[in-house]
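Priority: medium. Attachment 1 of 2:
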């Protein structure tokens, strides 16, 4: 059966749920609105997972208005008008400029040519993968992968590796896993992290700032990265003898000197990071007026100011940032609209009039009453990481927070800020299957990685992530956040 026929079947099934589910008599504790929301949720999940995220996202928001679950003005304000969507848009633009001026590639090559990387073959591999993780912490994980992958393939050619060899398979698969880990290290440009954080703010009024989350994310990510290296070192056990003595200094020599555009862009990016640090950590240690003013700006405004500067600052007669190019090529609009629809749908499911949250609390609370918070977090993290390897990461982050939040509140012994952070990170740890994320699909499509090996070693990394996130990450998040 061709793809168009499969899509038609999925579309028909999805509409059947959306249109017929409300006709089913509501169980005790639910209403017709509850059944409408359930049917819409199931139908949209089918479309998002099997058809696409583009037009189904508009359908999602339209159906919510048609059913009267939320007014159109509320849909736009909680979706496309949400602060999370605005922040992602401007940061994607800034990230695009950093890539265009060559700063991102410069960072990538520095990681594999520094003194530590030259100490041994294993040191080179570790620093190469660590570099991918680090860069993915500050930009799209797909973009980070596409910076490192051509460099890796150049190295394979120079060392005469062939497709099917174990060393290049380890490195390419490691790149996919490393950028996945990096995507959970910070909320910068990563909607998966921002979705549960935004839902937490809307439902409880509790907020998570960028720096505080990043401390939790980096510590947890570094431990998971160390676990990946141990898996490779003692279970995969590649023969790195061909890499012994390999000189990568020519990669650094091939880089042109930093030009004025790159220097200005890099300095402005560092200034943005510094402002975020001041906002979250040092606002009370500075002149009160300055600290209050900077904190009031939020996360997106400093990026907007930098974009304005880059568009106005001309070098050799041309602005550093081409605004139209950054908006059209740097911003993944389909993904942003998808994330907006996810926020709207999640907000709908938690509305008091819809009644689903109260229903879950009433039915599930007796089952989890007295349950140890560590066990609860382990269950949520495990289910979320397993699910995210077979479905949309953003959807997993939304669904698991929407379901677990009212239950956790009813339990009374769960740190809600830490829970949102753990779910955001867990939904990012998709390492085991090609459909799980775009980077893993790209990795599988290179021909360097066998899908069975991806499932085996990516799965081991996912299991390690479950344990580390539950027993190390959650306590760290609870202490810091």
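Attachment 2 of 2:
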């Amino acid at each position: 059966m061709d793809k168009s026929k499969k899509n038609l079947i999925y579309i028909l099934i999805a509409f059947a749920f959306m249109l017929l589910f409300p006709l089913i008599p509501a169980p005790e504790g639910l209403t017709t609105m509850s059944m409408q929301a359930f049917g819409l949720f199931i139908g949209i999940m089918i479309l998002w997972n099997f058809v696409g995220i583009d037009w189904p996202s508009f359908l999602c928001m339209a159906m919510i208005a048609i059913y009267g679950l939320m007014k159109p003005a509320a849909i736009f304000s909680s979706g496309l008008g949400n602060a999370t969507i605005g922040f992602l848009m401007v940061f994607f633009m800034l990230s695009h400029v950093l890539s265009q001026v060559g700063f991102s590639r410069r960072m990538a090559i520095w990681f594999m040519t520094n003194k530590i990387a030259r100490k041994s073959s294993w040191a080179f591999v570790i620093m190469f993968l660590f570099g991918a993780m680090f860069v993915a912490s500050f930009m799209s994980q797909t973009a980070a992968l596409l910076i490192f992958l051509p460099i890796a393939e150049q190295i394979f050619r120079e060392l005469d590796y062939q497709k099917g060899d174990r060393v290049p398979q380890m490195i390419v698969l490691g790149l996919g896993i490393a950028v996945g880990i990096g995507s959970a290290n910070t909320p910068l440009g990563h909607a998966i992290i921002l979705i549960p954080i935004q839902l937490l703010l809307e439902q409880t009024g509790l907020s998570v700032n960028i720096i505080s989350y990043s401390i939790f994310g980096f510590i947890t990510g570094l431990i998971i990265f160390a676990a990946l290296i141990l898996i490779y070192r003692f279970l995969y056990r590649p023969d790195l003898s061909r890499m012994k003595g390999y000189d990568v200094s020519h990669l650094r020599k091939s880089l042109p000197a930093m030009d004025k555009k790159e220097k200005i862009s890099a300095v402005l990016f560092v200034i943005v990071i510094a402002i975020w640090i001041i906002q979250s950590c040092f606002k009370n240690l500075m002149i009160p007026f300055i600290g209050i003013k900077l904190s009031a700006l939020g996360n997106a405004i400093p990026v907007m100011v930098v974009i304005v500067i880059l568009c106005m600052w001309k070098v050799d007669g041309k602005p550093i940032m081409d605004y139209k190019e950054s908006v059209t090529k740097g911003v993944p609009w389909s993904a942003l609209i998808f994330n907006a629809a996810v926020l709207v749908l999640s907000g709908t499911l938690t509305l008091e009039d819809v009644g689903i949250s109260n229903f879950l609390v009433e039915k599930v609370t007796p089952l989890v009453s007295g349950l140890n918070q560590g066990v609860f977090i382990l269950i949520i993290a495990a289910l979320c990481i397993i699910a995210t390897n077979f479905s949309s990461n953003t959807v997993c982050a939304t669904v698991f927070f929407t379901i677990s939040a009212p239950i956790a509140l009813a339990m009374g012994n769960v740190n809600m800020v830490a829970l949102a952070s753990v779910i955001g990170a867990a939904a990012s740890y998709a390492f085991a299957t090609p459909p799980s994320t775009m980077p893993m699909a790209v990795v599988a499509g290179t021909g360097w990685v066998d899908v069975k090996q991806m499932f085996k070693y990516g799965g081991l990394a996912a299991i390690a992530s479950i344990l580390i996130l539950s027993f190390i990450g959650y306590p760290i998040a609870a202490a810091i956040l």
